[in-house]
Every structure is written in C-alpha cells, then in structure tokens.
Amino acid sequence: MSFKADHQTINDLKIIGTNREQDIYALFNRTRTRGGAAMLKDMLLYPRSREEEIRGRVNIIKYFKEKEINFSFLPNIFDTIEHYLSNIDERTRLSLHEDNFQRKFNNIIGSDTEYQQLNKGVLSTLVFFVELKSFLSKLDENDSAELNKDVVSIHEILGIRELEIIKDLDKIPKKLSYADTARYDKVFRFKINKEVKKLLYHVYAFDVYSAVAEVAKEQGFCFATINTGDTNSIEMYGVYHPLVPNAIGNDLLIGENSNMIFLTGANMAGKSTFMKTFSIAIYLAHVGFPVPAKKMRFSIQNGIFTTINLPDNLNLGLSHFYSEVSRVKKVAESVNRNDRLIIVFDELFRGTNVKDAYDATVAVANAFAGKRKCTFIISLPILLRRAKN
Predict the structure, then answer these.
(1) 295-298 and 375-381 as β-strands: parallel, antiparallel, unpaired?
(2) C-alpha to C-alpha distance for 49 and 288, rounded to whole angstroms
(3) Rounded to whole angstroms, how far apart are CA atoms 114 and 111?
(4) Which ranges constitute the DSSP H helices of 349-388?
C-alpha cells in the first residue's frame, strides 16, 4: 500500500529537486550504478504505509550499516551488461559455423565490431557472476529475514540448470575463445535473459542499501521505530533538517489530543524550516530510510500534504489566492476520505488581506479540528495574530 504524497509535497520537501539545487535524493545517492541510482529515486518517490514493508527495508539497511557491507562490484560492467542483454535479435546469435578464416581475419584487423561487442558483454556477465558469488558470501549468514528473501531468490536463479556452465567458475577469465563466447552467449542472451536481469535488479537493491547505510553512519541518522498501538502518535527527539548546515535539533511530541500545532514568529525565525524538518522525517520514515534525528517513534500514516512553497499559476490567469483556496479544497477532500494524514500549511491565504486571511485560517482550522486521527501543523505570521484586533 502506497503512502500518499503529491507533486507539491515532493517539491516543498525537495525530495527530488532540480539539477541546480540540493535535494534529499542527492544526500543519499552514494550508489555506484545507474540502476541503483534509478532504484533509489523510485524508493524516494513511493513511500510505503504497510508496516512489514517499512520494517523490512529498515532491517536490511540497518544490517548493511552494522556489518559495514560495501558494494564490491565493478561499477563499469553494469552498463555493458544492460546493453548486451537488450540485444535479443536472433540474427545476431553466434554460430560455430561462422568461426572461419574470414571471421578470424576480420577480428584481427578490428572490423568485426559486432562480435567484439558480444564478446565484451559475455565477459562482463561472467565477471558479474564471479563477483556475485563473492558478495553472497557476506550475506549468507545474515540474521535479517527480509534480506534472506533476496538471497534465497538469487540462489534459486543461480541453481537453474542453464547456469551449470558457470558452476565451477571461481575466477574471471581474461579472454574467451569464439566457441566459448558462443556457448555462453546462447545461454545469457537467449535462454536466461530475464533471470540475469532479475539478478541485476537484486544487486541494484544491494547498491542502494549500501549507499543509504553509508550515509546513515556518516551523518549519524537514526532508524525510526513503529508504534503498533491503535493510538496515533509521533515522537521526535533532536530532529533537524538534513540539508541545513549546522542545524539545531528539536523535540516534538504529537498525540490525538494534541494533533493541531500552530507555529508563529517573525519572518526568518525558522517556521518554514521546522515544518520541512518534521515533514522530511515523516517522509523518510515511511520510505524505510534512516532519519536525521537522535530518536524517532511514529504511528504509520497514510500520507502527507504540505503547502509551503505554493507557486502562482499566472499562465492560466489564476491568482495566488485562488491557488491557495484550490489547494485547501484538495487537502480537505483527502482528509474527509482518509485518517492518519499529515497536513502542513505554511501561512495560509497570503494572497489576500490580513483580516480575510485570519478569518479563513480560523475557519479552516475549526473544520479540521475534529479529525483527531490526522495531524495538522499551521504556521501564522505575527500580523495574522493581531488581525482579530
């Protein structure tokens, strides 16, 4: 089951930012492969709201961190293997009948580029299998039930009949004859193409786990624990914004009888940063990633909606106030349909005058107040507090 977080929220929290700005993805991206980087992005874009999924990912990353398991594969082989496996054109299948003088001559003078590419792909795949066997030796005795599912799946693939040809392969060959290349190529590209891709998928996941564990250790992030009781509660101790240098940690306790929080203070006092800090910690906890805090305990939520940097839509002729009203309407509809949502509003209704903004904010807060299973954080400028007077 997925955790709801829309485009506005992902942009507010800089989960995946532009190439010109620092974001949460860049913070965790110590991956060594393009496949791992793509998988990391998918994990961040799709948080979970099922306890077993969150707990499983936490346990795997924690295991990689505690055992200091590094990603020991040669990174440059993966792009070669991906390209090699993508070519399943039967016309490129190698035949022993083609191992003639003309082919050998073309190979010597460097004009047989198609064969050279296939040979490179086979060699890279063999390197992958040798390194995979070595890497598995670090995981076979692990005490993580979740990680064992991946390990068992890998061993099942390695045990299929077609891979008996690499059973005794314990070192990387420097070069292959045409006959050996054709024999391996027939298996890798045309018999077990999907199985090899599944192995790559598992290894990309290991790349992510290793990268995230490295960041957790270096940054001193903690692993949030899940509150399995019926009461909706969130506890954060020493939580801070991971992208702010020398950030100061804060504590926050939220329960069903204290589920609506109002923040106020002068401009530049840190209200928006605090709201982002809280929201990022909640978001990462539902990804199953370590969080920037000393300690965190939370009840699983169904989603988060933030309104912190709401843009104008002048191209459509829509004012900022109209955008704010539309956003509140969308959030209200989600709150009516779901329990356990996190709602964060930073200075509602800036697009209108102070008096109307005050009245509208009070009306919205009163409407949300009865939803005890949801959590609301609303910031107010000092002028808004005085508007009633």
Answers:
(1) unpaired
(2) 10
(3) 9
(4) 354-368, 382-386
- Using alpha carbons, select from 369, 32, 260 the residue that is nearest to residue 40: 32
Predicted structure pTM score: 0.91
Q: How far apart are CA 334 and CA 263, in angstroms?
A: 23
Q: How far is CA 351 from the centre of its chain?
A: 34
Q: What is the number of residues in the chain?
A: 389
Q: Which two tokens stand for residue 110?
A: 């460097």
Which of 92-106, 171-185, 194-208, 359-373 has the weakest average pLDDT? 92-106
Residue with tokens 């009245």: 359
Question: Which secondary structure element, helix H or strand E, spans residue 307, and what is its range?
Answer: strand 303-307
CA distance 14 to 64: 26
CB–CB of 40/208 below 8 Å?
yes
Spatial contact of 309 and 11, defined as CB atoms under 8 Å apart: yes
225 in Cβ contact with 297 (< 8 Å): yes
Q: What is the pLDDT of residues 292-340, one digit of tens each?
A: 999 999 999 999 999 998 876 655 556 778 888 889 999 999 999 988 9
**Which SS3 state, helix, strand or coil, does residue 376 take?**
strand
DSSP string of 247-291, one letter each residue: PPPEEEEE-TTS-EEEEEESTTSSHHHHHHHHHHHHHHHHHT--B
Cα distances from 10 to residues 36, 307, 314, in angstroms, run 21, 10, 21
> Distance (Å, rounded) from C-alpha 209 to C-alpha 64?
7
Tokens describing residue 287: 């990804």
- Cβ 51 vs Cβ 21: under 8 Å: no
